[in-house]
Specification:
By secondary structure, this protein is mostly helical. The chain has nine helices and no strands. It has helices at residues 12-20, 24-33, 42-51, 69-120, 125-133, 140-152, 158-195, 201-208, 212-240.
């Protein structure tokens, strides 16, 4: 019997459940880290506004922070700005992949059409295959210059001129296909990186308005709790499932 691979027990529901069970500071940390997938609630925004240190307080007892509508809207605007940046980053990489896939299809269609026109003009399929294999090393600028000189001097017939132009066009489109495929590989890699990128510490600190040291301590504390909770939940899910044949 061929062994089958089990799917990952980590699901969106487990992640959201683990985050929901954290204290409010931990929920905020995780939601800000995953801001392109999750969003902070209104209660968490109010907590962040109240949790910010007063910039007027340099030393001594921290004064009571009074929340104003202006401070709440400023917090929401910063949150929205970083959400917009994450969305635009993901959309940009996704659109790059879509555009390159479309360019590959278009160039392939042009190359196929040029091959069909060459076949209609009596060029054998073996010759077309050989010309396609030589597309990477062909130099179209030199070929076109020589072809234009022959055409101006009436050294070549119109039919032969069209055949040579079709060969150049087919090889050029085949090179475009190869070039676009290489770019698509890089674009897909960038898209995967963008999808798995979380907010940086300075970005979270800018949204929340807390010092870097405080943020780092909270991040270490609550990330540890989150990872332990998800690990325990995944272990329970895997233990209750059926064994892999």
């Amino acid at each position: 019997m061929t062994p089958t691979l089990a799917s990952s027990p980590l699901t969106v529901d487990i992640i959201e459940e683990a985050i929901a069970n954290l204290p409010i500071q931990g929920r905020i940390i995780l939601r800000l880290l995953l801001l392109q997938y999750l969003d902070v609630t209104q209660d968490e925004i109010l907590f962040m506004v109240a949790d910010r240190p007063d910039p007027r307080c340099v030393s001594g007892k921290k004064p009571v922070t009074t929340m104003t509508q202006e401070s709440i809207m400023a917090m929401i605007d910063r949150r929205n700005e970083y959400r917009r940046r994450a969305r635009l980053r993901r959309e940009r990489t996704w659109l790059q992949c879509v555009a390159l896939e479309h360019l590959i299809k278009t160039a392939s269609a042009f190359a196929t059409r040029a091959a069909v026109l060459l076949t209609d003009r009596g060029v054998s399929s073996e010759t077309i295959a050989a010309l396609s294999a030589q597309a990477r090393s062909a130099v179209p600028s030199t070929t076109l210059r020589i072809l234009e000189q022959q055409w101006e001097k009436d050294e070549i017939s119109a039919e032969e001129y069209l055949k040579h132009r079709l060969v150049v066009e087919m090889q050029m489109q085949l090179r475009f296909v190869e070039r676009f495929r290489k770019r698509l590989v890089l674009a897909e890699r960038e898209r995967r990186t963008s999808d798995s990128t979380t907010l940086q510490d300075h970005e979270i600190g800018h949204i929340w308005g807390i010092p870097a040291g405080t943020l780092a301590a909270r991040k270490v504390k609550f990330l540890s709790q989150y990872l332990l909770a998800t690990q325990a939940r995944c272990s329970d899910t895997a233990g209750s499932g059926s064994p892999i044949p």
